[in-house]
Write a structure and sequence with these properties.
This protein has seven helices and twelve strands. A seven-stranded antiparallel sheet has the order 4-3-7-1-2-6-5. It is globular and about 55 Å long. The chain has two domains: 112 residues, Beta Barrel (Elongation Factor Tu (Ef-tu), domain 3); 110 residues, Rossmann fold. Helix 6 crosses helix 7. With 244 residues, it is α/β, with parallel strands linked by helices. Strand 11, helix 7 and strand 12 form a beta-alpha-beta unit. Helices cover 29% and strands 32% of the residues. Bound molecules: flavin-adenine dinucleotide. The site of flavin-adenine dinucleotide has 29 residues, from strand 4, strand 6, helix 3 and strand 12.
């Protein structure tokens, strides 16, 4: 959001009024470029103070100054200071990816939330997280959140070298990375890895790409894992825009 005022001005008065009434206004406090496609984004403002937030919840950020949104998972929320943090992946050329790539400290932004999304409260630690690049924020949070500390992570990724470097920069160096294959053949290894974690007592959170979640979820059920030990949340699906 390089020119936020002009972005917002492209929309009519009704949309601008709705954005003002419905969304929390905030300011980008800092942007750290972790790699060409990953950004750690700190957002702050009065409207972020005294907010009740739980790990796994989402915010929906206005992309383009209007009511079009893309969804991200806060990595932390400091309700005293009025500050939150996102770990955002710019996968391509969608509105969200462009928003992430163009963010600069000092930009204004607006968002809905935090709102319910992935409910981790009933899962027993350690949690075995399966996801992808969009789940790195959740992984950070699971590592730091005391009730779930000790999470075990398996990620399917498009570029293992980039993913490994990004994860190392946020202090995650034990994750299993499985590179995507076009025929999804890699998901057999992913399901085996998650099952191995379950065998050592972990409950499971499946996040990220919808077809991968379905495939791994089916493998877990076929292996007899009780559904009460599994939570799922699709973060994106091929061909769908702005899922959620
Ligand atoms: C509850 C929830 C929490 C989320 N948390 C995070 C988070 O913390 N960090 C984060 O980076 N993302 C997160 N996401 C995912 C993010 O909202 C999507 O990836 C979003 O689609 C990106 O918007 P876009 O405009 O770039 O792409 P869109 O315009 O929405 O999508 C265009 C096309 O790109 C493809 N696509 C979408 N996402 C991806 C992807 N990640 N990799 C490859 N291809 C993709 C699809 O085929 C889609 O049709 C979350 C999503 C949900 C629902």
């Amino acid at each position: 959001m390089t020119e936020p005022v002009h972005e917002a001005a492209r929309h009519g008065p009704v949309t601008r009024a709705l954005v003002r009434w419905l969304m929390r206004p905030a300011r980008v406090a800092a942007v750290e470029t972790l790699s060409p496609r990953f950004r750690l984004v700190d957002i702050e403002g009065e409207a972020l103070r005294d907010v009740t937030w739980a790990a796994g919840q989402k915010i929906q950020v206005s992309v383009g100054g209007g009511l079009s949104t893309r969804t991200y998972t806060p990595v932390m929320w400091d309700a005293g200071r009025g500050r939150t943090r996102l770990l955002a992946f710019a996968h391509g050329d969608g509105l969200g990816s462009r928003w992430v790539s163009s963010l600069r400290a000092g930009d204004r932004c607006q968002f809905f939330g935090p709102r319910r999304s992935l409910d981790l409260s009933a899962l027993a630690a350690p949690i075995a997280l399966f996801g992808d690049e969009t789940s790195f924020g959740l992984a950070t949070l699971l590592r730091e959140d005391p009730p779930t500390a000790g999470a075990i992570q398996t990620f399917e990724v498009s570029d293992a070298a980039e993913a490994r470097a990004v994860l190392a920069s946020i202090g995650i160096d034990q994750a299993t990375l499985i590179e995507r294959r076009a025929d999804d053949g890699h998901l057999v290894a992913a399901a085996d890895e998650v099952l191995r974690c379950i065998g050592s007592g972990a409950d499971v959170a499946l996040t990220g790409r919808a077809p991968s979640i379905q495939r791994v979820g089916r493998a877990l059920k076929a292996a007899g894992v009780r559904s009460t030990r599994i939570r799922t949340k699709a973060y994106w699906a091929p061909g769908k825009t702005g899922l959620d």
